[in-house]
Amino acid sequence: MNKEPSENSDVESLLSQLSLCEPSADLDESIAQICSSPNSLHSRAAGRLRFAVALVASLAVGVLIGLAIPSYSKDDDSPKMSTAPESPKQEDFAPLKPQGVVLMDAGFSRVDGSPVRILHAPKDSRKQSGSLKLHSKIVVPSREI
Amino acid sequence: LNTSLNAIYQKERQGLFTLALSITRSIVLAEDAIQDAFVKLMKVDLPSEPELKPYVYKAVRFTAIDTLRSNKRQQSLAESIFCDASDHSSEHSPSENALTEERSAILREAIEQLPLDEREAVVLKAFAGLTFRQSADTAGVPLKTIATRYRRALQKLETRLKGKL
To answer: How far apart are CA B119 and CA B79, in angstroms?
Structure first.
């Protein structure tokens, strides 16, 4: 009842001659492993999924660590802003001796109405203009010199 | 049951792979589907030997369809179920070989262009060697339907061969 029509026998004989794509040896090995050890069942797709999850988790941990540890770039010329401002200390405003380490005279400006002279000025302060702000170790009221 | 399942695979590996590949059109997805199917088969109660073969084919077919659905947007699905090597025609003369090779090439192309249900019928019946009853069980359709699909597919293939040669 379900026999193929005789006119198709030529086609069927040709079909039997076609070379089919073969499964890989890896698949054979995997199936043998699956059938031999049911406790270690895991599909390749599941394995890839687990690898992807582990990779994403590792990246997330790396990003969190990177955010937790502030980095400092050598190319960054701007002074580092600390989270808590450093409170000025008494020795920062102590009078300097005349033969002291006057490294740069950046001219005069005014702080609280008094002219000041900049001592121990870092390079960045050369570019500063206008009124100066009190900064540790660089601003000394002139009346104290 | 593990040994019988492994034995089924060893015996039917080519047919199972061709079925999965004809559905997914990707070698990687086809192998994934077969492996996933066997993982699932290990967890269920398998039928005895006469029904085991179509049962395994059906499991691979379902898994291949699921795999295709979940990966359709990620893969280029155009891999052939046929290998590039020339077909078994070395026993003929060179002219016969050339003719057979040409007919085989036409046939391969025609099979690839068949609708999925007809291609599946050809794969199950002609390549996997299942009976119509087993093919119908595997495809989940009535016996008459799978037989009609197979005959219709063969007629299309024959028409293509006659038109080209």
So the answer is: 14
**A52 neighbourhood in chain B, CB within 8 Å:** none
DSSP assigned state of A76: -
Instruction: Label residue A137 by pLDDT band (50, 70, 90).
Output: low
For B51-78, how does the pLDDT look when each residue is reduced to its tens digit (9 = 90+)? Answer: 888 999 999 999 999 988 887 666 556 7
Q: CA B120, CA B132: separation in Å to the nearest integer?
A: 12
Q: How far is A62 from chain B (nearest CA, A)?
A: 28
Q: How many helices (H) and strands (E) does chain B have?
A: 7, 0
Q: What is the pTM of this model?
A: 0.58
Amino acid at the residue A88: P
The residue length of chain B stands at 165
Query: Are the Cβ atoms of A32 and B100 closer than 8 angstroms?
Result: no
The angle subtended at Cα A51 by Cα A46 and Cα A54, nearest 5°, is 125
Complex-level ipTM: 0.77
User: DSSP label at A18?
Assistant: S
Cβ neighbours of residue A49 closer than 8 Å, sequence gap 6 or more: none
DSSP states of A101-138: -------EEEETTEEEEE-S--GGGGG--SS----TTT
pLDDT beneath 50, residues of chain B: 1, 89
CB contact A28 to B (< 8 Å): yes
pLDDT given at position A12: 83
Average pLDDT, chain A: 63
| Rounded to 5°, angle at Cα B43 from B39 and B26 | 25
Which two three-digit tokens encode residue B141? 């359709």
